[in-house]
Amino acid sequence: MGGKLIDRFAENLAELLGESQSEERHLAAVPELDEEDARPSGTLRTSLTPDEEALDLLAIAGTPLLKRVAPVAGAIAGLLFLVWLIRRIVR
């Protein structure tokens, strides 16, 4: 389940550690922002860049989630059936 996350983290960490950038090079890589490009601090980024892969959480955690939700849903359905059956017998 977490293998994909760990692999992605390891790739990014290796990329960061492999780069030896000087301060000038790092500052030169930062683009100048216009007023319309600037975002207030604390706002979330809403779009992914083309090289980022979206993480499908339903594919990763769907089965464990279903294993936890199915017994609860079955118990609720069974209780509702028993209530319906008892009400029908009492009438």
Task: Describe what you observe in this structure.
It is a single chain. This protein is an all-alpha fold and 91 residues long. Helix content is 63%, strand content 0%. The protein has 3 helices and no strands. The longest helix has 34 residues, at 57-90. The radius of gyration is 26 Å and the shape is elongated. The mean pLDDT is 76.
Give the structure's gist in a few sentences.
The chain is mainly α and 91 residues long. 63% of the residues lie in helices and 0% in strands. The protein contains 3 helices and no strands.
Low-confidence stretches: none
State which percent range the strand residues make up: under 5%
Mean pLDDT: 76
Which structural class do you get from the secondary structure elements? mainly alpha
Radius of gyration (CA) equals: 26 Å
Q: Whole-Å distance between the termini? A: 52 Å
- Please report the total strand number as a whole number: 0
Q: Level of helix content?
A: 55-70%
Form type: elongated
Order of secondary-structure elements? HHH
The biggest beta sheet is recorded as: none
Count of helical regions: 3
